[in-house]
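It is worth pausing here to work through a concrete case rather than discussing structure prediction in the abstract. The textbook approach is simple: state the sequence, then state the predicted structure, then interpret. We follow exactly that order.
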Amino acid sequence: MKAARFSQFGGPEVLEIVDLPEPHAGAGEVRVAVRAAGVNASDWKKRQGQMDQNLPQTMGYEAAGIVDEVGDRVTGVRIGDPVVGVGGGGAAQAEYAVLSTWVPIPASLDFVGAAALPSTVETAARALDQLGVTHGSTVLINGASGSIGSAAVQFAVHRGAHVIGTASPATHDYLRNLGAEPVAYGDGMAERVRALAPHGVDLVLDVAGSGTLPDLIDLAGGADHVVTIADFPGAQQYGVRFSRGDSGRAEYALALATKLIDEGSFQLPVGQTFPLADVADAHRVGESGKVRGKLVLTVA
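Step two, the predicted structure:
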């Protein structure tokens, strides 16, 4: 099968499409003929050598496609079903992928839109869980207009929280449509937040990693009320929790997101799609930070 891989660390040019043996579903797994696969910031960090140091490495953890193989002890899914999910093999950007967790794709969602969901919604829901966002919370989401930020806004609104979101002014109407009160980035951001929440906020989720943790801690009344997914050095410096998947995953998030999408109360825009063969271009666009919305690879 065709799959994305790199054999040395470096820029997008090290990515290649290679022929690999087809994987097969083990116990508790399904295999899909991939129609679309998500691209994440962790992909280029992996390619740059910031994560696993082994070589070569395949790419991708989330995929949407048609079930074509069902492993032992799997119930509730049949060959031919459209599903979206994640797998532990790290090779979802390929013609076939083995999924260890999956949900049905609702009729209201296509393969590309489904592939944009798993990593994004899990990260957003996990961070809100770690913060303890519940009905009546006032939560500030720093970097609210990107994929993870907008998912967090919608999940927090679904929980009954009052959400304030920082973002560029061009995205403020979008955030209002999601149910958040928007505030502009940049100098004076803390004062603008206090104008909406004079006594500060209960909780803060930092998605942007924009060096504002001291202001965010002040607004929340302490570092223990702040979680970041984007500023690891700042988290260490200021005693803020850095959200990691190895501290427990929000496995329910994908099913919840697809349910809300089917009800018309959740959206996650796709920024751009690329054929699998153009995975290097997807990395270039993703690293530029100039596209709002999830990047997705399509597989014919």
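Step three, interpretation. The first strand starts at residue 2 and ends at 6. The radius of gyration is 19 Å.
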